[in-house]
Amino acid sequence: MYTTLLTTIEAGTMIITINRPDKMNALNKDVIEELGAALDEVYNNPEVKSAIITGAGEKAFVAGADITEFLSLGADGGAALATKGRNLVFDKIENCPKPIVGAVNGFSLGGGCELAMACHFRLASANAKFGQPEVNLGLIPGYGGTQRLTRLIGKGKAMELLMTADMIGADEAKALGLVNHVTALEELLPRTKEILQKIHTKAPLAISKIIACVNECADGDHHGFDKEIKRFGESFATEDMKEGTTAFLEKRKAAFKGK
Ligand code: COA
């Protein structure tokens, strides 16, 4: 169905693999459009409870936006490219009501680092390398990199990485809070799936509310505390809340329905 992606659904998790390994899985126009369509599936297919985004091969997650598409663009074209990517992919990942995790299996540069950062959280294999090398090309990040990197690792370190174009390894990325876990390459997908399986046992509507609340905080929303109270209240009106609390009192496992 897709020409630049491989997708499978395993135990409720849709695994989206960007599949241009000979081009380091660079994000060209087709990848952005197909990622947009695959994300629509994640949103709309009730069988899909979560998603993983990863790259094909053992070298790259995604080595950036496809640089071959840049030379013909002017100011309006550049802005349009970034806006399209943001709407079709990056913001859609961040705001997805189902968890989406980045499994970073190699170079995660430029748009690749931005793609990983749009995910709700990230795991990296030991060979992963992160960086925002846009200044080497006379550019700056356009898929949210200046914003999400600063939120994730803080202003000073973000400034340095963005200005030097330095690459950092998986352990440093973990120390900075850019990734949550570092694994051997062969353990990356199993470990990511395992975390998602644990999340699948929790109440889906509560998970969606967590995503919305945490995103609002990260966005600097001044009404985050009030919105948390509103969603907390709404949780009491769900069947899942009755099921979760009853199951606790009856000393059994809850069976949530996402209602
Ligand atoms: N856009 C388009 N093509 C890319 C690409 C990108 N972002 N990143 C890699 N490729 C292509 C290379 O041009 C090469 O294609 P070719 O075989 O037709 O010549 C192929 O992928 C393999 O890359 P190569 O550079 O030969 O591999 P390497 O192992 O020597 O280096 C990287 C790997 C990731 C360090 C290097 O490819 C690189 O620096 N890529 C660009 C990173 C970047 O600036 N990203 C930000 C873009 S905004």
Task: Please write out the topology.
Blueprint: E1 5-10, E2 13-18, H1 29-44, E3 50-55, E4 60-62, H2 75-94, E5 100-104, E6 107-109, H3 111-118, E7 121-125, E8 129-131, H4 145-153, H5 155-164, E9 168-169, H6 170-176, E10 181-183, H7 188-200, H8 204-218, H9 224-236, H10 239-249
Parallel strand pairs: 2-3, 3-5, 4-6, 5-7, 6-8, 7-10
Antiparallel strand pairs: 1-2, 8-9
Return the CATH class of the largest domain. Alpha Beta
Task: Encode the helix/strand succession as letters.
Answer: EEHEEHEEHEEHHEHEHHHH
Spans of at least 5 consecutive residues whose pLDDT stays below 50 are none
Mean model confidence by pLDDT: 97
Determine the N-to-C terminus distance: 32 Å
Quick description:
By secondary structure, the chain is α/β, with parallel strands linked by helices.
Task: Report on this structure.
- The chain is α/β, with parallel strands linked by helices.
- The chain folds into 2 domains: 5-200, 2-enoyl-CoA Hydratase, Chain A, domain 1; 204-249.
- The protein is built from 10 helices and 10 strands.
- Strands 1-2-3-5-7-10 form a 6-stranded mixed β-sheet, sandwiched between helices.
- Strand 2, helix 1 (29-44) and strand 3 (50-55) form a beta-alpha-beta unit.
- Helix 4 (145-153) packs across helix 5.
- The radius of gyration is 19 Å and the shape is globular.
- It starts with a strand and ends in a 10-residue tail after the last helix.
- Residues 23-24, 26, 63-68, 107, 109-111, 133-134, 136-137 line the site of coenzyme A (COA).
